[in-house]
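Our consortium's second objective concerns turning raw sequence data into structural hypotheses that experimental partners can test. To show how far this objective has progressed, the report includes one record in full. It was chosen at random from the queue rather than selected for favorable results. The single chain below, 322 residues long, was entered without modification.
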Amino acid sequence: MAEDTQGTDSQEGAGDGQDGTGTDGAQGQEQQAQDQERGGAQHLTGDDAGKDGGEKKPAGNWRDNIQDEKLRGHAERFTTPEDLVKSHLDLRTKLSSAIFIPGKDADEKDIQAFRKAIGVPEKPEGYEFKMPEGKEAGENDKAFQEAARQAFHKLGIPAPAAAGLNAWWNEMTSAMQAAQVEADKQYAAQTEAALKKEWGDDYDRNHALANKALESFFEKEGKEAFQTLELKDGRLLGDHPEVVKAFAKIGREMVNFGPDPALATNEQTTIQEKFNDLQKRKMDARNAGKTDEAERLDAEQAKLYERLHGTAPIIGTEGRAA
């Protein structure tokens, strides 16, 4: 009997426990389901919320989980976390190929890496320079190029930039030289016009005297060097009217001490032949008693003698020279 009583009590106690436990468990499960539903809704996008045909629910603000205020403000620029991650990946991709300028505290390794990255040659000899078309480098050009190499390398100028500067320099100097040549031509023409106006019919003769005098002072190379000396205004010395007149004067003075330098060799021969013919005719006239004829021929002969031996009067800017 005792055993039966204890069995009954145990069954009743067990029944009471099951009733209590069943009620509390059901309430806990319902509460958990509600919490999961509310929490899950905060992370669902509109598409996810409507996958089962239910009404789409608005997404929660994912930025609220960012504690740093500055970072949270930056996150406002992006619509979704995926946009933020994508932007970060794009930035990393760009930075992987970026060239950074070394700071003032950068070490030599970083500086050399930067110079290499932008195209600076390892040595000054890495720069190549070209001359303008049709012109070869002279000693002065080579010295200038070497100085440019040293300066470019010290300044860290990339080789492509140096090549661009070289091309620009060639274009500029070629244009300047062409302009100078044209200016020299105009100046020479102005000098010629001024001297022709001043000398009149004596221009050709005086110009020839000037050239002969110049040649008497200089050999061919020296003459060219003298004539192409540049004055302060960039004009050539040989084209200056005062220089031309000075050498013409020297040429006129030289006439008094020798044959006319303005006469070519064949012209001197012709004059000498005429002089000899006049000499014969003059003697014949005198022998025939034709005094007037002999004096006339003597005057003509004297003129030829003056031209051959430098006593002929030369007309120039200074008048006749006795």
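The partners drew two points from this record. Residues 263-322 form one domain. The two ends are 182 Å apart (CA to CA). Both points have been shared with the crystallography group to help prioritize constructs.
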